[in-house]
Amino acid sequence: MTLAATHRMAMGMDRPDTLARLAATIAARRHADPASSWVAKLHARGVPVIARKLGEEAVETVVAALSGSREDLVGEAADTIFHLMVLLDAKGVDFAEVLAELDRRDGVSGIAEKASRSE
Ligand SMILES: N=c1c2ncn([C@@H]3O[C@H](COP(=O)(O)OP(=O)(O)OP(=O)(O)O)[C@@H](O)[C@H]3O)c2ncn1[C@@H]1O[C@H](COP(=O)(O)O)[C@@H](O)[C@H]1O
Q1: N or C: which end of the chain has fewer CB within 10 A?
Q2: How many angstroms separate the CA atoms of 12 and 81, rounded?
Q3: Distance between Cα 78 and ligand 1 center (Å)
Q4: DSSP state letter for 46
Q5: Rounded to whole angstroms, how far apart are CA atoms 83 and 95?
Q6: Greatest CA span in the chain, whole angstroms?
Q7: Pocket of ligand 1, candidates 33, 73, 79: which has the most ligand atoms within 8 Å of its Cβ, to mutate?
Q8: Residue 104 backbone phi and psi in degrees, to 5
Q9: Chain segment 46-83, per-residue pLDDT in tens
Q10: Using a 6 Å cutoff on CB, does residue 25 contact ligand 1?
Q11: Above 70 in pLDDT, residue 4?
Q12: Ligand 1 geometric centre to CA of 6 (Å)
């Protein structure tokens, strides 16, 4: 594998459609049978349960980062992103809006942005 290809893979740039595909799957599964769909089961339980689940997955990600294996961290990070996307869908927020916000921030240093808020 070339260095450029390795870099693309490391940055996830070889999978530009992953999040868009997952967002579409989550939207499509929202009203599926809760007995066979985790997305539908979460949706049926409501936003507070989904939000709590996201919080649990975020904490599990922190624990994996501090004391778990690399594999644990990858798995918990995936769980966190997935449950964040289920929560956004349940709140009617298009994941593209989050991506657009990240694009808007591109090139704006977090240090400079924080300093501009304290002036
Ligand atoms: N990416 C995911 C995904 N990631 C995690 N999960 C589920 O999220 C649940 C997490 O619950 P728990 O934390 O209780 O499970 P756990 O982490 O194994 O248990 P603990 O270790 O916390 O005790 C598990 O049932 C996982 O299978 C997911 N379920 C679905 N998807 C995607 O959503 C699509 C639709 O799924 P369904 O709606 O289930 O058809 C799938 O095709 C996938 O693309």
Answers
A1: C
A2: 14
A3: 10
A4: -
A5: 12
A6: 53
A7: 79
A8: -60, -35
A9: 999 999 999 999 999 999 999 999 999 999 999 999 99
A10: yes
A11: no
A12: 29
Residue 44 belongs to a domain: yes
**Token pair for 98:** 């989050």
CA distances from 43 to 15, 22, 25, 87 (A): 27, 16, 13, 9
The residue behind tokens 């704006």 is: 108
Q: Which domain holds residue 107?
A: 16-117
- Apex CA 73: angle with CA 11 and CA 60, to 5°? 130
Please name the amino acid found at residue 87.
Answer: L
Q: Would you state the structure tokens that stand for residue 85, as one six-digit string?
A: 């996307």
Complex confidence, ipTM:
0.91
pTM of the model: 0.88
